[in-house]
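Researcher: Quick test of sequence recovery. Tokens follow.
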């Protein structure tokens, strides 16, 4: 068995958490640069995870079991992105900035704990082993494509006929 998809997802969460710590410890110019990276990285994480989860919901029967958990994950991602956008409009390194970054860190930590405790076991329980093992590659490829602004390989064929 290769790398677990939820290990990749958890790594992204840890990277976001560490970046939020870093923006509260750096000078305003550096903090803004880190924030820009966080916004870009979170967008890639969110898009890739959404694609991966929607692929699981396409099979009949799974949607009923996973729909609610997936909706919670997607809502948490939207809230995190909104908070990053609010930070981007604030004065860097102000007391309000630090408070907002701390609140966002708490949101990310709660989200990660929820995904690991609820979504991960639910997915493991309702997909075949070979399907589950392919999720890490699907997530990683999607994330890489979003980071590089390239179309996912499985979508190239559809795009070339438009």
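Model:
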């Amino acid at each position: 068995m290769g790398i677990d998809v939820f290990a990749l997802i958890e790594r992204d969460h840890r990277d976001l958490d560490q970046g939020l710590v870093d923006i509260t410890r750096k000078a305003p110019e550096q903090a803004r640069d880190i924030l820009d990276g966080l916004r870009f990285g979170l967008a890639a994480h969110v898009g890739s995870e959404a694609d991966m989860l929607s692929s699981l919901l396409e099979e009949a029967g799974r949607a009923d079991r996973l729909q609610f958990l997936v909706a919670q994950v997607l809502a948490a991602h939207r809230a995190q992105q909104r908070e990053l956008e609010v930070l981007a409009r604030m004065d860097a390194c102000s007391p309000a900035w630090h408070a907002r970054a701390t609140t966002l860190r708490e949101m990310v930590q709660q989200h990660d704990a929820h995904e690991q405790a609820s979504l991960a076991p639910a997915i493991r329980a309702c997909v075949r082993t070979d399907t589950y093992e392919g999720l890490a590659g699907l997530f990683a490829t999607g994330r890489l494509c979003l980071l590089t602004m390239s179309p996912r390989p499985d979508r190239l064929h559809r795009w070339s006929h438009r």
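Confidence is low (pLDDT under 50) at residues 155-162.
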